[in-house]
From TrEMBL:
<feature type="domain" description="ABC transporter">
    <location>
        <begin position="16"/>
        <end position="248"/>
    </location>
</feature>
<dbReference type="GO" id="GO:0098796">
    <property type="term" value="C:membrane protein complex"/>
</dbReference>
<dbReference type="GO" id="GO:0005886">
    <property type="term" value="C:plasma membrane"/>
</dbReference>
<dbReference type="InterPro" id="IPR015854">
    <property type="entry name" value="ABC_transpr_LolD-like"/>
</dbReference>
<protein>
    <submittedName>
        <fullName>ABC transport system ATP-binding protein</fullName>
    </submittedName>
</protein>
<dbReference type="InterPro" id="IPR017911">
    <property type="entry name" value="MacB-like_ATP-bd"/>
</dbReference>
<keyword id="KW-0813">Transport</keyword>
<dbReference type="GO" id="GO:0005524">
    <property type="term" value="F:ATP binding"/>
</dbReference>
<dbReference type="GO" id="GO:0022857">
    <property type="term" value="F:transmembrane transporter activity"/>
</dbReference>
<dbReference type="InterPro" id="IPR003439">
    <property type="entry name" value="ABC_transporter-like_ATP-bd"/>
</dbReference>
<dbReference type="InterPro" id="IPR017871">
    <property type="entry name" value="ABC_transporter-like_CS"/>
</dbReference>
<dbReference type="InterPro" id="IPR027417">
    <property type="entry name" value="P-loop_NTPase"/>
</dbReference>
<keyword id="KW-0067">ATP-binding</keyword>
<dbReference type="InterPro" id="IPR003593">
    <property type="entry name" value="AAA+_ATPase"/>
</dbReference>
<keyword id="KW-0547">Nucleotide-binding</keyword>
<dbReference type="GO" id="GO:0016887">
    <property type="term" value="F:ATP hydrolysis activity"/>
</dbReference>
<dbReference type="Pfam" id="PF00005">
    <property type="entry name" value="ABC_tran"/>
</dbReference>
Length: 249
């Protein structure tokens, strides 16, 4: 089972790369300050840092949801700074999946229609067989007709994950995807994200405040005051927590 779409027959090693990216909000707040970082295909990266350190801004710039004030962002081989709307939206819909803290499901639609919605918005023909497979993979086979409101928080986040996977994105961005879940349910979602990387070759970039969640990643990036403040490979929750203590001291 192969998740990644590769039209050119070549797969760049880095799915997302930021070069000297700065972002100034409202002409005053320098949320990112010259960040250069790459996200390698088939890896799971967690982004951590104190509140206000620029984590969400980094995620939004990397995903093409926000534009840097300066610097370049390459997403799925394209320099997205050069793209105007609606081309940028099209690239995002085609190559990026999102999982948010608040799930962001459409309550008026069934689970099945939620999962297919991004492809319908993108105007691509939904791959129904694959959608069924990803729903089964997240443990929701048989719940296709349910409305999100009838499901638990953990189940809703699994629908959101199936929705993110259904379009076979190059990269999945998670903004605190376990932030609204209890410990056990959050762990289940993290295990699924981990499996997406291991079994499907997905690339995952996840912002989190939780050292135990970050420990599921291959690498943890630390931000402080809009700058990279180091990284940990093969992290443990203890080492992540210790590094966070140093950053907030
Ligand atoms: N739209 C905006 N307008 C003005 N300032 C903003 C905007 N978005 C973020 N900021 C500011 O930029 C800085 C970085 O914010 P960002 O949300 O990226 O940090 P964060 O590390 O994700 O924070 P948190 O952990 O609290 O979510 C903060 O000082 C924040 O107040």
């Amino acid at each position: 089972m192969v998740l990644l779409r590769d039209e050119q027959g070549t797969a760049p090693r880095d799915v997302v790369a930021l070069a000297e990216v700065s972002k100034v909000h409202g002409g005053r707040v320098r949320a990112l300050d010259g960040v250069s970082v790459a996200f390698t295909r088939g890896t799971f990266t967690a982004v951590m840092g104190p509140s206000g350190s620029g984590k969400s801004t980094l995620l939004h710039c990397a995903a093409g949801l926000d534009r840097p004030t300066s610097g370049r962002v390459l997403l799925a081989g394209q320099d997205i700074g050069a793209l105007r709307e609606p081309r940028l939206t099209a690239v995002r819909r085609r190559h990026v999946g999102f999982v948010f803290q608040a799930f962001n499901l459409v309550d008026a639609l069934s689970v099945w229609d939620n999962v297919l919605l991004p492809q319908q918005l993108a105007g691509t023909r939904p791959d129904r067989a694959w959608a069924g497979e990803v729903l089964a993979r997240v443990g929701l086979a048989g719940r296709e007709k349910a409305r999100p409101g009838e499901l638990s928080g953990g189940q809703q986040q699994r629908v959101a994950l199936a929705r993110a996977l259904a379009a076979r994105p190059e990269v999945i961005f998670g903004d605190e995807p376990t932030g609204a879940l209890d410990l056990a349910t959050g762990r289940e979602v993290l295990r699924l994200l981990r499996q997406c990387v291991a079994d499907l070759g997905a690339t995952v970039v996840m912002v989190t405040h939780d050292p135990a969640a970050a420990a599921w990643a291959d690498r943890v990036l630390f931000l402080a005051d809009g700058r990279l403040a180091g990284e940990l490979h093969e992290p443990t929750a203890q080492r992540v927590a210790a590094r966070m203590m140093e950053l907030t001291r």
